[in-house]
Write a structure and sequence with these properties.
This protein has 187 residues and is an alpha+beta fold. It is built from two helices and nine strands, in the order βαββββαββββ.
């Protein structure tokens, strides 16, 4: 099943803009560890910087560096731990993590490559529709494989690959409102 946006011709994510503590470390990590080309840099009035990395398919990951930015608040503005290693809850309006789409046939190779580069990674998570939503075994019900890691500022990142095609039966759960009540959607 291919879902179609009937309102706007959105062609993907143009860029996601995050804030880093040290632009030099950020550039080193994203270019030398993850191999993303640095494609645009800006000096912003007041001493700030805004840099863009190509993260594939014409999409970009961008970072601001602000000289007076507040310190990171893990567990509030971002997850406090890698999935499977602690609480990954973050505050309303925060960005929880960035998932990069990788080819399924190269997933295990890429996990090994991250480890070889000295990146601390979570265990591999095979997400399925079980009660726990993850399994150790790769089986036909697994819909995405994931591994999580962080950048130098603690931004939670993920390499993920879809393992099957979705159908109407995959989007049946009603969304929760602010009080946790499940609200039936009008289709």
């Amino acid at each position: 099943m291919t879902a179609t946006n009937k309102e706007f011709d959105i062609q993907g994510v143009h860029h996601l803009a995050l804030v880093c503590k040290d632009m030099a470390k950020t550039v080193d990590f994203y270019t030398n560890v993850l191999g993303m080309p640095l494609i645009k840099t800006l000096e912003i009035p007041g001493g700030a910087q805004h840099f863009f990395f190509d993260c594939g398919n014409g999409d970009s990951l961008a970072f601001f560096w602000f000289p007076e930015a507040a310190k990171a608040a893990p567990g509030i503005s971002a997850p406090g731990a890698l999935p499977g290693r602690g609480n990954m809850t973050s505050a309303h309006g925060s960005m929880n993590h960035v998932a990069f789409d990788v080819p399924p046939e190269r997933f295990d190779e890429y996990v090994a490559k991250l480890r070889d580069k000295g990146v601390a990674v979570s265990g591999i998570m095979n997400h399925d529709d079980s009660e726990t939503t993850v399994t150790r075994e790769l089986h036909p019900g697994v819909f995405v494989r994931s591994v999580y890691f962080t950048d130098p500022d603690g931004v939670l990142l993920e390499f993920a690959c879809w393992t099957r095609t979705f159908g109407p039966e995959d989007a049946l759960h009603p969304p929760a409102d602010a009080e946790g009540r499940r609200i039936q959607r009008v289709r």
